[in-house]
């Protein structure tokens, strides 16, 4: 029998009463592995009200106790790391090593959440006027929510609810309806870690359920990660309803290849960062910018890329898994065909790819384009598949101009042996996350995930200190005490608790 994914409301896993369900499929086989409910209006209301009620007590739980929940959670996640990775592989098709990375990058954020007290310290200035002191304190907002995409079912929910909750908020998570199973396991482990009932709610659904969150007066902040049109919609609607919003969107990440770079490193890193996870990473390299003579390396790049073939999650030889759905594959194939029709040269064409014994999988082979121009769809749009577009320029200045003219600004990297070129690049490039000889420069959680321009709508970014600011409010106190109020005579009691 097909598993019905429950909701998680008020600390209880419960079956939805909805009549609307979405099938969850294994993208390597197209087998239906579960069905996920689109929560009813009543269930949404119940989850939000529960979060609001729990907030009243959770905000006053000692910060060290809130941190201890995260310590226990981190421990449990590590203990169940491999099991979570396998579950995640089943619903995303990710190969095991990638799935493990997904879980691990999430665990690292939970570690930061356990360090919440040092990120919630206010400031003090004594004697702002004679005998008057001013100090600030950081307080939680209330009920926050998170809407997450399919491509990192562990890491991205873990970017959100542990920090928000450690900061004293309660949280409503709406995971991607394509990959709800990992999120439910994350919730189970959170409960086992001793999180009080009602601190985290998990609801399921699509636009309608997201709209309820965006418009509900109780919700104070919205964290979103997903595609560009939805991010724009979430930012606009959420802010119209007076919510704080951070919306992380799509990307087109360029890697610049300088003539003094180590050729073997360039090729290795380009291959891994473009086709890894079937290109379904918001930080995947999707454009290689060859400077000067390095365009001669494209032939060797093509040879190495061609060796990368997709396969099942537990196949050691597979370089990556399938695309998430038939719809996603059809979209990528259509973009590849459009690229050819618009005159780009398809050096490697992955559209006819098959994997033995798995004819129903959404497979796509590595695909490489040269001769593209900036007005072609394969350059303008995020493809989100194992597709690399090669551009050629004569100088570093031209490479910088090309990238700064692209609307996205999530990640980029430069491969070079020249410190001055690297310094110029990091300074002038209008992209929020820069790698120097590092292809996918995702910051660790003591920093923040800092996409720019068309890849991000909002002000404060995910995890790190910025996320703590996002999920909190600053209160400033100015205080004055009069000497006359100091009691005279001895006070012999010591009251400590
Ligand atoms: P998506 O935008 O289709 O879905 C994301 C979430 O939004 C899901 O929970 C979905 O149910 C919900 N949603 C979908 N349509 C909606 C609508 N019309 N109104 C309200 N909610 C809606 O994204 P996806 O396909 O799941 O994820 C892939 C995208 O996410 C890619 O574009 C990728 O670049 C992006 N992404 C960005 C980052 C980043 O940090 N910038 C990280 C990971 C993924």
Automatic annotation (TrEMBL):
Q: Which Gene3D superfamilies match?
A: Aldehyde Dehydrogenase, Chain A, domain 1, Aldehyde Dehydrogenase, Chain A, domain 2
* The Aldehyde dehydrogenase domain, residue ranges: 15-477
Against Pfam families, the record matches this protein to:
Aldedh
Molecular function as annotated in GO: methylmalonate-semialdehyde dehydrogenase (acylating, NAD) activity
Q: Does the keyword Transcription regulation apply?
A: no
Q: Which SUPFAM superfamilies match?
A: ALDH-like
Keywords assigned: NAD, Oxidoreductase, Plasmid
- What EC number is given for this enzyme? 1.2.1.27
Using the UniProt record, name the top-level EC class of this enzyme in a single word.
Answer: oxidoreductase
Its GO biological process terms? L-valine catabolic process; thymine catabolic process
Which InterPro entries does the record cross-reference, listed alphabetically? Ald_DH/histidinol_DH, Ald_DH_C, Ald_DH_CS_CYS, Ald_DH_N, Aldehyde_DH_dom, MeMal-semiAld_DH
Q: Which regions form coiled coils?
A: none
Q: Is this entry keyworded rRNA processing?
A: no
**Family, per the entry?**
Belongs to the aldehyde dehydrogenase family.
Q: What's the protein name? A: methylmalonate-semialdehyde dehydrogenase (CoA acylating)
Which organism does this sequence originate in? Vibrio aquimaris
Q: Which gene encodes it?
A: mmsA2
């Amino acid at each position: 029998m097909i598993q019905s994914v429950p909701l998680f409301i008020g600390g209880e896993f419960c079956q939805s009463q909805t009549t609307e369900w979405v099938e969850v499929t294994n993208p390597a086989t197209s087998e239906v592995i579960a069905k996920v409910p689109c929560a009813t209006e009543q269930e949404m209301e119940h989850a939000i009200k529960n979060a609001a009620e729990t907030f009243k007590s959770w905000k006053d739980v000692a910060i060290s106790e809130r941190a201890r929940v995260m310590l226990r959670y981190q421990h449990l996640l590590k203990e169940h790391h491999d099991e979570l990775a396998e579950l995640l592989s089943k619903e995303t098709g990710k190969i095991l090593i990638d799935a493990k990375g997904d879980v691990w990058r999430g665990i690292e954020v939970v570690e930061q959440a356990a360090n919440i007290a040092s990120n919630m310290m206010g400031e003090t200035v004594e004697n702002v006027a004679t005998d008057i002191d001013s100090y600030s304190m950081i307080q939680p907002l209330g009920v926050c929510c998170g809407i997450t995409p399919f491509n990192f079912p562990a890491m991205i929910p873990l970017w959100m609810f542990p920090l928000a909750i450690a900061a004293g908020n309660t949280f409503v998570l709406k995971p991607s309806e394509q990959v709800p199973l990992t999120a439910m396991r994350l919730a189970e482990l959170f409960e086992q870690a001793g999180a009080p009932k009602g601190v985290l709610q998990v609801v399921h659904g699509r636009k309608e359920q997201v709209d309820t969150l965006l418009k509900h007066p109780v919700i104070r902040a919205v964290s979103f990660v997903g595609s560009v049109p939805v991010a724009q919609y979430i930012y606009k609607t959420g802010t119209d309803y007076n919510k704080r919003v951070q919306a992380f969107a799509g990307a087109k990440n360029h890697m610049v290849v300088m003539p003094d770079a180590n050729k073997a490193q360039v090729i290795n890193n380009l291959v891994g960062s473009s086709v890894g996870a079937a290109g379904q990473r918001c930080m995947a390299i999707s454009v290689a910018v060859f400077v000067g003579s390095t365009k001669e390396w494209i032939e060797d790049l093509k040879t190495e890329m061609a060796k990368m073939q997709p396969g099942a999650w537990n196949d050691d030889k597979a370089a990556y898994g399938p695309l998430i759905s038939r719809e996603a594959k059809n979209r990528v194939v259509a973009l590849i065909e459009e690229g050819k029709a618009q005159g780009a040269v398809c050096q490697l064409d992955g559209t006819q790819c098959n994997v033995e014994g798995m004819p129903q999988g959404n497979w796509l082979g590595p695909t490489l384009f040269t001769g593209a121009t900036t007005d072609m769809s394969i350059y303008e749009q995020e493809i989100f598949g194992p597709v690399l577009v090669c551009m050629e320029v004569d100088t570093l200045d031209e490479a910088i101009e090309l990238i700064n003219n692209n609307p996205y600004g999530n990640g980029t990297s430069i491969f070079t042996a020249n410190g001055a070129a690297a310094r110029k690049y990091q300074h002038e490039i209008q992209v929020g996350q820069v790698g120097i000889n590092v292809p996918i420069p995702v910051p660790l959680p003591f920093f923040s995930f800092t996409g720019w321009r068309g890849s991000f709508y909002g002000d404060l970014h995910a995890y790190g200190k910025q996320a703590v600011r996002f999920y909190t409010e600053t209160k400033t106190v100015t205080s004055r005490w009069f000497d006359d109020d100091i009691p005279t005579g001895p006070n012999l009691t010591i009251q400590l608790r």
